[in-house]
Amino acid sequence: MQIIVFNNINLFGFISPFPYILFIILYPVNGNKSGLLMASFLLGLILDMFSNSGGIHTTACLFLAYFRPTIFKFAFGVSYEYQTIKLNETLTPERFSFLLVAVLLHHLVLFILEAFQFRLLWDILIRTLLSGLFTLTICIIIIYLIKPNKR
Protein backbone atom coordinates (compact mmCIF):
# COMPACT_ATOMS: atom_id res chain seq x y z
CA MET A 1 0.00 0.00 0.00
CA GLN A 2 2.85 2.38 0.81
CA ILE A 3 4.48 2.00 -2.58
CA ILE A 4 1.32 2.08 -4.68
CA VAL A 5 -0.91 4.52 -2.79
CA PHE A 6 0.85 6.51 -0.08
CA ASN A 7 4.02 7.34 -2.03
CA ASN A 8 1.82 9.17 -4.52
CA ILE A 9 0.22 11.40 -1.87
CA ASN A 10 2.04 14.71 -1.48
CA LEU A 11 -0.12 17.42 0.08
CA PHE A 12 0.98 21.02 -0.48
CA GLY A 13 4.29 19.77 -1.85
CA PHE A 14 5.80 18.65 1.46
CA ILE A 15 3.33 16.56 3.52
CA SER A 16 3.75 12.84 2.84
CA PRO A 17 2.27 9.95 4.84
CA PHE A 18 4.37 6.93 5.80
CA PRO A 19 1.99 4.49 7.52
CA TYR A 20 4.27 1.54 6.76
CA ILE A 21 5.89 2.17 10.14
CA LEU A 22 2.80 0.59 11.73
CA PHE A 23 4.51 -2.73 11.08
CA ILE A 24 7.33 -1.73 13.42
CA ILE A 25 5.01 -0.06 15.92
CA LEU A 26 2.53 -2.95 16.17
CA TYR A 27 5.19 -5.68 16.36
CA PRO A 28 4.55 -7.73 19.53
CA VAL A 29 6.22 -6.34 22.64
CA ASN A 30 7.63 -9.69 23.68
CA GLY A 31 8.58 -10.64 20.12
CA ASN A 32 12.06 -11.46 18.90
CA LYS A 33 14.13 -8.24 18.92
CA SER A 34 16.59 -9.39 16.27
CA GLY A 35 13.66 -10.53 14.12
CA LEU A 36 12.19 -7.03 14.38
CA LEU A 37 15.51 -5.46 13.34
CA MET A 38 15.82 -7.84 10.40
CA ALA A 39 12.22 -7.30 9.29
CA SER A 40 12.64 -3.52 9.65
CA PHE A 41 15.77 -3.67 7.53
CA LEU A 42 13.96 -5.62 4.80
CA LEU A 43 10.92 -3.31 4.95
CA GLY A 44 13.11 -0.24 4.58
CA LEU A 45 15.20 -1.86 1.86
CA ILE A 46 12.11 -2.73 -0.21
CA LEU A 47 10.81 0.83 0.15
CA ASP A 48 14.19 2.25 -0.82
CA MET A 49 14.37 0.05 -3.90
CA PHE A 50 10.92 1.12 -5.12
CA SER A 51 11.32 4.77 -4.09
CA ASN A 52 14.93 5.10 -5.28
CA SER A 53 15.75 6.89 -2.03
CA GLY A 54 19.25 5.62 -1.34
CA GLY A 55 18.80 3.95 2.04
CA ILE A 56 16.97 6.63 4.03
CA HIS A 57 13.92 4.44 4.69
CA THR A 58 16.12 1.56 5.78
CA THR A 59 18.03 3.77 8.20
CA ALA A 60 14.87 5.35 9.62
CA CYS A 61 13.21 1.93 10.05
CA LEU A 62 16.26 0.48 11.79
CA PHE A 63 16.51 3.56 14.01
CA LEU A 64 12.86 3.23 15.04
CA ALA A 65 13.14 -0.53 15.61
CA TYR A 66 16.29 -0.11 17.70
CA PHE A 67 14.88 2.65 19.91
CA ARG A 68 11.39 1.11 20.17
CA PRO A 69 11.99 -0.37 23.67
CA THR A 70 13.17 3.03 24.89
CA ILE A 71 10.06 4.70 23.49
CA PHE A 72 7.94 2.01 25.19
CA LYS A 73 9.62 2.71 28.53
CA PHE A 74 9.08 6.43 28.04
CA ALA A 75 5.39 6.11 27.14
CA PHE A 76 4.27 3.23 29.36
CA GLY A 77 6.71 3.17 32.26
CA VAL A 78 6.28 0.14 34.52
CA SER A 79 3.62 -1.48 32.30
CA TYR A 80 6.26 -2.06 29.63
CA GLU A 81 8.39 -4.17 31.95
CA TYR A 82 5.46 -6.50 32.60
CA GLN A 83 4.70 -6.56 28.86
CA THR A 84 0.97 -6.05 29.29
CA ILE A 85 0.68 -3.63 26.39
CA LYS A 86 -1.67 -4.11 23.43
CA LEU A 87 -1.47 -1.19 21.03
CA ASN A 88 -4.42 -2.14 18.85
CA GLU A 89 -7.01 -1.60 21.61
CA THR A 90 -8.66 1.70 22.56
CA LEU A 91 -6.49 4.79 22.29
CA THR A 92 -5.26 5.88 25.71
CA PRO A 93 -2.88 8.80 26.40
CA GLU A 94 0.00 6.34 26.82
CA ARG A 95 -0.68 4.66 23.48
CA PHE A 96 -1.11 8.02 21.79
CA SER A 97 2.17 9.32 23.23
CA PHE A 98 3.94 6.14 22.08
CA LEU A 99 2.55 6.51 18.55
CA LEU A 100 3.37 10.22 18.45
CA VAL A 101 6.98 9.82 19.62
CA ALA A 102 7.59 6.83 17.33
CA VAL A 103 6.19 8.58 14.26
CA LEU A 104 8.01 11.86 14.92
CA LEU A 105 11.31 10.09 15.62
CA HIS A 106 11.06 8.08 12.40
CA HIS A 107 10.14 11.13 10.35
CA LEU A 108 12.88 13.27 11.87
CA VAL A 109 15.56 10.73 10.95
CA LEU A 110 14.02 10.25 7.49
CA PHE A 111 13.89 13.95 6.65
CA ILE A 112 17.32 14.72 8.13
CA LEU A 113 18.83 12.07 5.88
CA GLU A 114 16.80 13.25 2.92
CA ALA A 115 17.87 16.90 3.19
CA PHE A 116 21.32 16.31 4.72
CA GLN A 117 21.97 20.07 5.03
CA PHE A 118 21.99 22.13 8.20
CA ARG A 119 20.62 25.20 6.45
CA LEU A 120 17.38 23.30 5.79
CA LEU A 121 16.73 22.73 9.51
CA TRP A 122 13.40 24.62 9.55
CA ASP A 123 12.19 22.76 6.46
CA ILE A 124 13.14 19.47 8.12
CA LEU A 125 11.28 20.36 11.32
CA ILE A 126 8.17 21.59 9.50
CA ARG A 127 8.06 18.51 7.26
CA THR A 128 8.60 16.27 10.29
CA LEU A 129 5.79 17.88 12.24
CA LEU A 130 3.22 18.11 9.44
CA SER A 131 3.97 14.75 7.83
CA GLY A 132 4.13 13.20 11.29
CA LEU A 133 0.67 14.48 12.21
CA PHE A 134 -0.73 13.30 8.88
CA THR A 135 0.90 9.87 9.28
CA LEU A 136 -0.32 9.67 12.88
CA THR A 137 -3.89 10.36 11.78
CA ILE A 138 -3.71 7.68 9.09
CA CYS A 139 -2.13 5.20 11.55
CA ILE A 140 -4.90 5.76 14.11
CA ILE A 141 -7.52 5.23 11.40
CA ILE A 142 -5.80 2.01 10.28
CA ILE A 143 -5.52 0.76 13.88
CA TYR A 144 -9.26 1.29 14.39
CA LEU A 145 -10.02 -0.45 11.10
CA ILE A 146 -7.96 -3.56 11.98
CA LYS A 147 -8.98 -3.63 15.64
CA PRO A 148 -10.46 -7.04 16.50
CA ASN A 149 -14.09 -7.13 17.57
CA LYS A 150 -14.79 -8.11 21.17
CA ARG A 151 -17.47 -10.79 21.09
Key descriptive features of the protein:
151 residues; mainly alpha
Outline the structure in words.
- The chain has 151 residues and is mainly α.
- Helix content is 65%, strand content 0%.
- Helix 2 (33-51) runs antiparallel to helix 3, helix 3 (56-76) packs antiparallel against helix 5 (93-115) and helix 5 (93-115) packs across helix 6 (121-146).
- The radius of gyration is 15 Å and the shape is globular.
- The mean pLDDT is 82.
Low-confidence stretches: none
Largest sheet descriptor: none
Q: What would you call the shape?
A: globular
Please report which band the strand proportion falls in: under 5%, 5-15%, 15-25%, 25-35%, 35-45% or over 45%.
under 5%
SSE class: mainly alpha
Report the order of strands and helices.
HHHHHH
Number of strands: 0
How far the N terminus sits from the C terminus, by CA atoms, comes to 29 Å
Annotation field: number of helices: 6
Q: Portion of residues in helices?
A: 55-70%
The radius of gyration is: 15 Å
The average pLDDT value, as a whole number, equals 82
